[in-house]
Amino acid sequence: MTKNTYALITGASAGIGFELAHQFAAKGYNIVLTARREDRLLQLSNTLMQQYGVDAKFISADLSDTDAPKQIHDFCKNSNLDIEILVNNAGYSINKKFHDTNEDDEDKFLTVLGTSVVHLTKFFVRDFLARGSGKIMMVSSLASFAPPSSGWGMMYGPVKTFVNRLGDAININYNSRGITATNVCPGFTITEFHTASGMQDKMDAVPSFMKKDVKSVARGAVEATLKGKQVWVPGFLNKFLAFLCNVMPARLIIKISARLAGGRYE
Ligand SMILES: NC(=O)c1ccc[n+]([C@@H]2O[C@H](COP(=O)([O-])OP(=O)(O)OC[C@H]3O[C@@H](n4cnc5c(N)ncnc54)[C@H](OP(=O)(O)O)[C@@H]3O)[C@@H](O)[C@H]2O)c1
After folding, report:
1. Which protein residue has the closest C-alpha to ligand 1 atom 46?
2. pTM
């Protein structure tokens, strides 16, 4: 049955966001898609409308542009789209050592994965408070629990830890007012992420038993968000790794991961 409300998904042109759009549409949610690649958003919105009979709108935006969160929120308001679910998913990594990364690239990275998430969340939390309900999915990472990588973008883990803490803060402050945040923390997932971030060779070196398919990750993430779970980690192995990261000394985690994680720690 089609619902009257919309799920807004950032980073919907590929990977996890693309699959989340299918999963929410399959449950009858209307969808607002956003990412930079307009051709992909147009194609996906048509597919969602035909395949699931829902409404699907899109707005092309670059989240490294500091005005983008407001533009996306304005688009929803001006089009009278009642957003019930916000999915902060867009992301990538920088495949360079910290000392080799230039400040502009770092600023853009922190804007896409950090500041834009804060601003979008703030805009929609205000609407959720007015309505008395709303759900937020933070697509974080298993890396948020692990010691920061030395070999793959050093700021990636820390910014994902920040995203988790933002989700926690939303739960602490707004659960009583009908708003939940779910920190979704995938491990290695087969998407365009590693190619887009210039680290496909490193992903290829990761043993296949450690990689999950994107459909199962998206399916579980949607269920967890609709149930209002605070944290969801896909799969037994990733749950076990998250547990180890929380209880084992960092140097041991680094030693084990240096063998398994294709260059995360060099
Ligand atoms: N794949 C994994 O192993 C893995 C593991 C843990 C966590 N994650 C997280 O999962 C999320 C989704 O990643 P994915 O694996 O699905 O990667 P992906 O297949 O590369 O998709 C990334 C999405 O983010 C969008 N995006 C990137 N930069 C953007 C920008 N400046 N402005 C707006 N949109 C932007 C891309 O769209 P456009 O290029 O069209 O803008 C694309 O839709 C990310 O937050 C990532 O950190 C991934």
Report:
1. 91
2. 0.96
